């Protein structure tokens, strides 16, 4: 029996943040769920492209009934919203999500705003033939994983990826910046 056919537990990969507190009212959040190219606390290196197949097959825009979930603390019985956008950029796995109108999600929104929750994590399964061991780094290089979920967590295994902010505030910040630029040009 091949390793791919063995029922595997879901692996969790947490990401930490240095984000300062954000005052927010929006239920739309953006964050990085994973970071590329560094050795994390689990001695794993995730590389760009590792999530491409999962995003295509189970991402926010797929036809799959089992879309990548947005959870609280990796708890499958605690979904807090839905992923509305997900892509791999040069830094890592960038996500946008909409928090549901439920008490837990409202609590998470407050904790995002205060900075209490500022880390994210991923739950995934290995694709055994898409990983290798790097003896110099003493870490496994993950070239592809089966992404199951992203979570907001208390403590992460990787400290390089931030909670980016509340979506409405980012748009408002851009409007203010552009208005100031236009005002400067008109003067």
What report would you give on this structure?
With 187 residues, the protein is α+β, with helices and mostly antiparallel strands. It is built from 3 helices and 11 strands. The strands form 2 sheets. Strands 1-7-10-4-5-6-2-11 form an 8-stranded mixed sheet. Strand 5 and strand 6 form a beta hairpin. The longest helix has 20 residues. The protein is globular and about 45 Å long. The termini are far apart. The N terminus is likely disordered.
Low-confidence stretches are: 1-6, 17-24
Shape: globular
| Largest beta-sheet characterization | 8 strands, mixed
Number of helices: 3
What portion of residues belong to β-strands? 35-45%
Structural class: alpha+beta
Distance between the termini: 73 Å
Q: What is the percent of helical residues? A: 10-25%
Within the largest sheet, what's the order of strands?
1-7-10-4-5-6-2-11
Order of helices and strands: EEEHEEEHEEEEEH
So what's the oligomer here? single chain
Total beta-strand segments: 11
Mean pLDDT level = 83
Radius of gyration: 18 Å
Topology record:
Blueprint: E1 11-15, E2 28-35, E3 44-46, H1 52-58, E4 69-72, E5 75-88, E6 92-99, H2 103-114, E7 119-126, E8 131-134, E9 139-142, E10 145-153, E11 163-166, H3 167-186
Parallel strand pairs: 3-9, 4-10
Antiparallel strand pairs: 1-7, 2-6, 2-11, 4-5, 5-6, 7-10, 8-9
Quick overview of this protein structure:
The chain is an alpha+beta fold. The protein has helices spanning 52-58, 103-114, 167-186; strands at 11-15, 28-35, 44-46, 69-72, 75-88, 92-99, 119-126, 131-134, 139-142, 145-153, 163-166. It is 21% helix and 38% strand.
């Amino acid at each position: 029996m091949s390793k791919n056919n063995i029922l595997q537990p879901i692996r969790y990969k947490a990401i930490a943040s240095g984000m300062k507190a954000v005052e927010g009212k929006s239920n739309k959040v953006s964050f990085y769920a994973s970071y590329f190219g560094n050795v994390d606390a689990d001695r794993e290196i995730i590389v760009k492209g590792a999530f491409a197949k999962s995003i295509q097959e189970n991402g926010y825009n797929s036809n799959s009934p089992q879309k990548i979930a947005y959870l609280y603390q990796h708890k499958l019985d605690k979904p807090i919203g839905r992923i509305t956008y997900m892509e791999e950029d040069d830094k890592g796995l960038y996500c946008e999500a909409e928090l549901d109108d439920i008490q837990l999600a409202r609590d998470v929104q407050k904790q995002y705003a205060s900075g209490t929750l500022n880390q994210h994590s991923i739950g995934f399964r290995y694709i055994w033939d898409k990983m290798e061991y790097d003896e110099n780094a003493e870490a496994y290089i993950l070239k592809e994983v089966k992404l199951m979920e992203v979570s907001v967590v208390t403590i992460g295994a990787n400290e390089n990826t931030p909670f980016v902010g509340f979506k409405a505030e980012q748009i408002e910040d851009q409007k203010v910046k552009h208005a100031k630029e236009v005002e400067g040009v008109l003067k």
